[in-house]
Specification:
Helices cover about 60% and strands about 10% of the residues. The chain has eight helices and four strands; from the N terminus they run αβαααβαβααβα. Strands 1-2 form a two-stranded parallel sheet. A two-stranded parallel sheet has the order 3-4. The protein is globular. The two termini are about 20 Å apart.
């Protein structure tokens, strides 16, 4: 919704990976077990997918990434990819909610037709949250040090969260001009 509103291209690493699995590509076969365990896919594979998408859509005003960068190495590589396109990371928005709320949401999704393999058991959900704490939280710290980080409360209706995110993006765009 944000990409559409601001004329950016939306890139979700999870969607890209699930598409590769569904298509039965060599890459999809390679990452399926990793995703099923709730582990993060290797930086090399994720970067290859992101770079491909960015090249295909190089004409856009900018990008909104979901689920990327998840590691410090990915953030450095992203900076390089964007620099080559005459762009840079403008802003990182971290959506937060209490851990118990995250567990409830993932458990609920695990019982729906939108279930991911790592939503199916409490152990996998907890493992996924631990992966965030050990590998992705340091990325947020990196962007905090660069004054490019904003925490947004992810509680409320979809409409409320979208309105708050829209205001955050508008504010960030004004600052970057």
């Amino acid at each position: 919704m944000l990409a559409k509103k601001f004329n950016f291209y939306y890139i979700s690493t999870g969607s890209l990976l699930r598409k590769e699995i569904k298509l039965g590509t060599e890459l999809g076969d390679k990452v399926k077990d990793t995703l099923d365990r709730g582990d993060l896919v290797s930086d090399e594979i994720v970067i290859r997918l992101i770079e491909r998408e960015m090249k295909i859509h190089s004409h856009v005003n900018g990008f909104i990434f979901k689920g990327f960068p998840r590691t410090i190495l990915q953030s450095y590589i992203l900076d390089g990819l964007l620099r080559r396109m005459g762009m840079g990371v403008s802003y990182v928005v971290e959506l937060t909610a209490p851990t118990i709320e995250l567990i409830k949401r993932l458990d609920k999704r695990g019982r729906s037709d939108k279930a991911r393999p790592y939503d199916l058991t409490t152990e996998l959900i907890i493992h996924r949250l631990e992966e965030y704490e050990t590998k992705t939280a340091p990325v947020m710290e990196l962007y905090k040090k660069q004054n490019k980080h904003h925490v947004e409360n992810a509680l409320g209706t979809n409409e409320e969260i979208f309105a708050n995110l829209s205001a955050t993006v508008e504010s960030a765009m004004k600052k970057s001009r």
